[in-house]
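Amino acid chain:
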Amino acid sequence: MIGHSSILRFISRYPEGVEKQDTTKVPTGLALYNIAAHRASREVIYSYSTSFGLATRIISKELRAHIENIYALVRVADEIVDGSAAEAAAIETAVDPGQLLADFENETYLAMKRGFSTNLIIHSFALTAREVGIKKEIVEPFFFSMRQDLTETIHDQASFQRYVYGSAEVVGLMCLAAFVHGHKYSEHEKTTMVTGARALGAAFQKVNFLRDLASDFEKLGRSYFPGVDVKTFNDDVKNALVADIENDLRISALALPLLPASPRKAVTAAQLLFQELNKKIAKTKAEELIQARISVNNLRKLILLAKTLLGAKP
């Protein structure tokens, strides 16, 4: 039987692995199932995120498979609480996002334990989790934050910090587990990288909160930042939030030199992109920020990616 690491190596050598396997001779089996599961996860990241899709492209192929698998799981969970499941529930009352999330979470833990799931996205995540050492204690806070989206619309400082940790910081820790798998570090270096991964995840999340401030409030009835309301949002509040994000990005940059070369470039590209977004937010008036979503155009993204490949640093 082919092991998980062999499957990931096969995937990395043959991105279109299913087409290259003669299914008339080998029409089924775990190897083919693993490939199909990963291809499903890979489709998710490139369907939902131009920015992360671009950054992920410059990671080595075998490592890229792990990141695609992680992203797909968290993206689908987010869709259950924010996107497609909510729309489906509006059409069909039998759709219950809370129950769907609970089922998705329980199936994730089962797959991490047994190495198999009938859900392709969960199956591919479980392969990665088992190989790189992502444990349940890191995954549980993520699902806790997803449940918060179903029940909490206003956060105080404590619930906000817990939400950001579970929804974003632990995702950074999952990716870090993949990045450093097979490498040895001192305890001090590990601490620096964990702190950096958490800070970068927090910065990404806070930038997205700022970009989506009005839509979160108007469409979802949520206010993530403690004490922040679009009705009273002003430049002083915005500038304080921008400064907080800048601090997160400064902390995360300290960990970049410790990462292996391939993920270091990808994480640098992502960090440069979110620095660019934060700078655009800083230059945008508060009243404009709650009217339009700030973004970086594709040409600028490609320029930032090229700068990263040429050795640019945050």
In short: The CA atoms of residues 136 and 241 lie 32 Å apart. Residues 1-19 have pLDDT under 50 and may be disordered. The chain has two domains: 1-134, 152-314. Residues 187-211 form the longest helix (25 residues).
